[in-house]
Amino acid sequence: MKINKTLECIKIIKSLPFFFLCVLIAYPILPYAMQSITIGLLFASSLFNYWNEIKKNILKRGVAPFLFITGWFLLVIITLLYSSNFEIGIKRVLRGINLIIIPILFIYILPSYSLKKRNILYNIFIYTHVFLIFFLLFKSFEGIDKLGFLDENNARVKNISSKSYLELVKVFFSMPFAYSRYYINENEITTFFIHKAYLSIGLVWSVFLMIDRLLFQPLKVAKGVLFSFLILIFIIAIVYFTSIPNIIALCILLPLFVFFKIKSFRKRVVYIFVSVISIIALFQVDVIKDRIFEDVRLKKDIAEVKGLLQTLFDNKPYENANIRLDVWKCSFKQIGKDIWFGYGIGDEEEILLGCYKSINCEDCIEQQLNTHNYYSSLLLIGGIVTLMMFLIALGYMLKIGVVAKNYLFLVMILLIGINLLSENMLVRIHGILFYVLFSGILLNQSYSKFDFVEK
């Protein structure tokens, strides 16, 4: 009896790292304190269970993978030495410390998980975003009920909470996207961290995870139907929130991902033919054209992107540019003053603020905007040296993905790389966790396919 209990306790203890990883993968809905506690428990339980494997993995893989992947952030930490605002700098370093801690877990401590366990992790992430979509939908219902809406007779209708959810959904989808988004108002929702860029990258990544399961893994019919439905819902949501980098990533990376995953030449030809016909057909559907391609915010965002590119490359003024142009101009203007080693991690905000004042960008000052381009942020913090180390990190992981033919890994790195062009995603914990968790899981999976030793 005692032996059985002992064996059961050992089994539970051994399962703790994967359990805490399952909890952490639901980070989009976890409170900040819960995220930190879970990371601590994951690291402690992993050390306890796999202590004997650490030395073996260090000997097998060496220190090169760690330096390749985290070297750029180690350089960021070194910039504290010449940052004039040490207090702010140390806070930012502590905020990003998981860019070192979690890669250590996946490179040297945690085992490579089986396909079954990876699918469990991916399912948790997917269903977390299903929950967030329904949460936002119900929040919009609250807004419609409280503020009312204009019906077909141009009369304001309020207090519709007595209607069934089906009727509320009909009301929601009868509105133009730009109008219904008003009721969500991401800045007023404080229950969870809601930001269109971080939400959209999660939705895009979930689409890739489901497509991979749907097309390239054995799947029960019911699960296949569910995933097909969720893929459609998620794609609509991505367009709905008009996160341009993620829309671009979806349009470019998804066709390439499926193409390279297909092994047969004949199937590839059929895939290309069906894709082209489907795209042409979609553009002919009135509902798609009116509700999506004619969406006010989407058209505005696309026009602004074109204008920003025109301004940057042609050096011509663009009258309708949004505030991001002023931010980018300040970022690249300040980079040139200390291009090799930057100003230090504590000085970025002060440097940008001084530039915002010089160009009289009141909104930039009031909102204390960051660079909205992580590559320029790294140039400001640590100069060309730090940026090059970060690009080496991305390149190293792309190399591992190519060698292991891990196309999900390649997509994940390219997806984060595209998003960093317009968002400082590795400044917030949600962006950091997305990056280190999925790159870690897929890196570990890739390592398991070959004996990789850096010379």
Give a structural overview.
- By secondary structure, this protein is mainly α.
- The chain has one domain (2-298, 376-447).
- Helices cover 75% and strands 1% of the residues.
- It is built from 20 helices and two strands.
- The chain has helices at 2-24, 32-61, 64-78, 86-95, 98-109, 115-147, 165-174, 177-184, 196-216, 221-240, 244-261, 265-284, 286-293, 296-314, 323-335, 348-358, 362-367, 374-404, 407-419, 429-447; strands at residues 149-150, 156-157.
- It has a two-stranded antiparallel ribbon with strand order 1-2.
- Strand 1 and strand 2 form a beta hairpin.
- The protein is globular, with a radius of gyration of 24 Å.
- The termini are far apart.
